[in-house]
Design brief:
single chain; alpha/beta; Ribosomal Protein S5, domain 2; 5-stranded parallel beta sheet; 22 helices; elongated
Length: 510
Amino acid sequence: MLGRATGAVLTGIDADLVEVEVDLGSGLPTIAAVGLPDTAAREGIDRIRAALPHAGFDLPQRRVIVNLAPAEVHKHGSGLDLPIASALLMADGKMPPLVPADTVLVGELSLSATLRPVRGMLSIALAVKAAGRRRLVVPRENADEAALVEGIEVIPVSSLADMVALAKGLPARIHSLDGAAVLRDRRGAAHGPDLREVRGQASARRALEIAAAGGHHLLFSGPPGAGKSMLAQRLPGILPPLHLAEALEVTRVWSAAGLARGLVTRRPFRAPHHGTSCVGLTGGGMVLRPGEISLATHGVLFLDELPEFRRDALEALRQPLEDGHIHVTRARARATFPATFSLVASMNPCPCGFHGTPGARCGCTPAEVHRYLGKLSGPLMDRFDLIVEVPPVDLGALSRAAPGEPSSEVRARVIVARERQRARFGPEGPASNARMGPRELAEHAKLGARVEQLLISAAKSFGLSARAFDRVRRVARTIADLDGGAGAIAERHVAEALQYRRCSAAAVPD
């Protein structure tokens, strides 16, 4: 006797549908699973053995073969528990075939036959829709996430008994959710530490605002205690809110990593330790999972003490910073993860941190300074849009200084600048000025004759590459957007953008 059901498995952040076939043959009562199941999928057989009696069913006293098709695809995760158990009950005549036949089942069984949530439900729901299936049965805790996908019926169930009742004709309770409404309700005000707490450091504060407004990559360089990390940690408070398409992509990544079960409504801010491996940053592993650069999609990746990170991990950032995605290939699988993030980093000028600081004694030799800065390659440094020297704070002036401008006021200007960019590029264009390609640069970052001559002259003087030349134009476009949305890029916009490249040559050793 045969029983059939359809489940789904994750492949990176994408998902594939899996056809489950159960055959009840003759012989000693055993259960065997074929079709390249991983450990979690194989252990699902033992979970099903324990769950069936709790749901009021007996195990078939015959030989059972579970086939997971297609056979050449590796099956990962525990989400196949529910379709395997359902196909087994269908084959044993204790559960009628599902009507309609285009239903997909996903869920992990507990030993008591209740259903537990699985990761990656948004990707699974998207795969169900792409395959033309109409209904998706999920654990109740996954219902909100699955319902974010329009065009399919999401039916939450709490246990295997609920699944059987559904197959026998119990009226289905379809779960629906308006993702746009959820996003509006949860946006709220700025969150995180307030920029008001930063006193002084006007240049660094301005660079932080420009980076937030245009999605630019930013590097702070300065001695210990100057406020580099403090500034970066206040970046979430001035970031603009997510739009629905961005929120769905962030949710998809975070769900695949097991970090979210509902719509992510705030831009990510990831700050991994400098001991993080290359795989930790870029993604991978035996079962492919997104790394920190993908978890920071549509948000910020903050790398504190940049030269202390492993060289291979830093060099792996170069391609994603340009392309906005990363291809991860391993022996048994490959996946493409999104990586549209803004990189914010901080560093000291030398191992002790006080090289070139007035009034401080640096004990580092020239060779040690060169070795320390040599951990950062020229191509990586070239990808920063803004490089800002953060000087030490005058302690006397610090105690007398008034509180800085609050995050709410800076965020208001950032939101206006981002909306100007969205109106300029349209829904199919880049999300921010930092993502402008050659076509957008030619159309939206035009330079007058005098402005262009200023930029060319400065680029020759600073020794800027062609990449850095275009990055200055992108930053100038953002400064113009903050400056009342000026249609043309003026000399003052280019001049300000250029000042954030002056220390780039000094940051990279000869």
